[in-house]
Specification:
The two termini are about 35 Å apart. Helices cover about 45% and strands about 15% of the residues. It has a domain of about 210 residues: Rossmann fold (3-Layer(aba) Sandwich). The strands form 4 sheets. A 7-stranded parallel beta sheet has the order 3-2-1-4-5-7-11, with helices on both faces. By secondary structure, it is of the alpha/beta class. About 45% of the residues are buried. The longest helix is centred in the N-terminal third of the chain and has 22 residues. It comes from Dendronalium phyllosphericum CENA369. One of its GO terms (molecular function) is aldehyde dehydrogenase (NAD+) activity. InterPro entries: Epimerase_deHydtase, NAD(P)-bd_dom_sf, NAD(P)-dependent_oxidoreduct. This is NAD-dependent epimerase/dehydratase family protein.
Amino acid sequence: MKALVTGANGFTGSHLVKALQKQSTTVVGLVRKSSNLARLGDRNVQLIYGDITDRDALKTAMNGVDTVFHTAAYVELGIVDEPEMKRVNVEGTRAVLEVAQAVGVSKLVYCSTIGIFGDTKGQLINETFTRTQKNFSSAYDRTKYQAQQLVDKFAQDGLPVVSVLPSGIFGTDDPHFGPVLQQFVKGRLKVWAGGDRITGIVHVDDLATAMILAAEKGTIGGHYIISAGELKSREMFEIISKETGVSVPREVPKPLVRLAGNLLTPIGKLLKWQPPISRERVHYIYDRCVRVDATKARNELNWHPRSASETLLELI
């Protein structure tokens, strides 16, 4: 088999490349000329250079390809370039879908997010849930939802596309929680916000496995939630604390966190700086709770991930 991975140099994309190559799959990677290729190391990947909206580059990358894995995305909360995020997440996905349809790929797997469901207000939901949140919590939330609408429309029109919807993605080179964890195990993280915030967890390698299984077994037009389980932030630190002996960070009072978010947001926008806390991040910590059930992926794809606690312990 020959597969294309968009965003092959990214966190999810690079782990997917590794998993595909373990199955002796020939891998083509679409990357930008400015991309940092460190995560790919010395892997034997045919690289095609081009922007995710560059249809000529996409057509070249899909030449002779059986399966396309679309992982490229602009992922960020807080101070973001909203027009650029829409260009990458929405228009980039549109370009991938149109070219895949034109060249006739056998299967396309789209890496979506559980965020498309919006705030479930703590309700545990599955793929049958219909979004009730009318507005959007972030530009990322909005653009990924819009991209998913495009994917579903192309599926209805006959494109063989399957969507995987991961929860929080963790791994040793995780660009989001990884740096926090590094500071914690070194004893440098003394305070934290939102200890009661519930986070769905999936190991990046288990996500890669799920994407491959979705290509093999997924129903056309199907959605598959990919999550190994959920933990509160406090529980995450307690698990790691028990293993390392490092004390759990103290909880910062909620009013103080909200004040910091309100103060730092305009400063971040003015200086084009990503503050450690912002109004958007505060909203995600305290006011938005998405809880998901991944039974469908376990049953239909025969997906068996490591547990949430095993994932955390592996990181240290």
